[in-house]
């Protein structure tokens, strides 16, 4: 797998430092509030696991799975709810945790979904933000680990056709891997 990576953007140590920084920030925001922290499957699992270890607060966790890539390298724009959360979000402070925001469509879908269900607040924590790919400019994450270039990234949860999620770093996938 490592041979398929053009450049490593963020090492494991750099990612862990971002998780620590964000975890401390979120501890201050949510102290005494018991938020429902919702992990967007599958890509955000490594990030959420490391992030919540850095948060010194009471919390509940849940998972949601949505898809807009359907195995490709670009969002199709059609968002499919694959797995819903198990808990009632009404009146809850929601913290959505995801790996990357690019077009902003999935983020908009999820924020609307939980606001429509009566959440008292919906905030978003992303490991990475890809502003150059944004199609919905108003969709911004509240907490971001890194701003990233408009490249096809894999590792630390991000995948290409289900592969590379287990890399401990984030890197740029060589174009020849996904172009043919």
TrEMBL record:
Catalytic activity as recorded in UniProt: IMP + diphosphate = hypoxanthine + 5-phospho-alpha-D-ribose 1-diphosphate; GMP + diphosphate = guanine + 5-phospho-alpha-D-ribose 1-diphosphate
Annotated localization: Cytoplasm
Superkingdom: Bacteria
InterPro entries (UniProt xref): HGPRT, Hxn_phspho_trans, PRTase-like, PRTase_dom
Cofactor list: Mg(2+)
Involved pathway(s): Purine metabolism; IMP biosynthesis via salvage pathway; IMP from hypoxanthine: step 1/1; Purine metabolism; GMP biosynthesis via salvage pathway; GMP from guanine: step 1/1
UniProt domain Phosphoribosyltransferase: residue ranges: 14-161
Gene Ontology molecular function: any one: glycosyltransferase activity
Record keywords, A-Z: Cytoplasm, Glycosyltransferase, Magnesium, Metal-binding, Nucleotide-binding, Purine salvage, Transferase
UniProt entry tagged with the keyword RNA-binding: no
Enzyme Commission number(s): 2.4.2.8
Family indicated by similarity: Belongs to the purine/pyrimidine phosphoribosyltransferase family.
Function, in words: Purine salvage pathway enzyme that catalyzes the transfer of the ribosyl-5-phosphate group from 5-phospho-alpha-D-ribose 1-diphosphate (PRPP) to the N9 position of the 6-oxopurines hypoxanthine and guanine to form the corresponding ribonucleotides IMP (inosine 5'-monophosphate) and GMP (guanosine 5'-monophosphate), with the release of PPi.
Protein name: Hypoxanthine phosphoribosyltransferase
Gene: hpt
């Amino acid at each position: 797998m490592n041979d398929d990576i053009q450049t490593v953007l963020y090492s494991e140590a750099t990612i862990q430092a971002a998780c620590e920084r964000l975890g401390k920030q979120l501890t201050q925001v949510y102290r005494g509030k018991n938020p429902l922290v919702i992990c967007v499957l599958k890509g955000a699992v490594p990030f959420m696991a490391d992030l919540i270890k850095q948060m010194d607060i009471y919390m509940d966790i849940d998972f949601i799975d949505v898809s807009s890539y359907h195995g490709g390298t670009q969002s199709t724009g059609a968002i499919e709810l694959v797995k819903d959360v198990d808990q009632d979000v009404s009146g809850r402070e929601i913290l959505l945790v995801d790996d990357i925001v690019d077009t902003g469509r999935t983020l908009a879908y999820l924020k609307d979904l939980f606001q429509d269900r009566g959440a008292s607040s919906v905030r978003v924590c992303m490991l990475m933000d890809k502003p150059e790919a944004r199609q919905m400019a108003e969709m911004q994450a509240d907490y971001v680990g890194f701003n990233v270039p408009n490249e096809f990234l894999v590792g630390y949860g991000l995948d290409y056709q289900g592969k590379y999620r287990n890399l401990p770093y984030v890197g740029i996938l060589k174009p020849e891997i996904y172009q043919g």
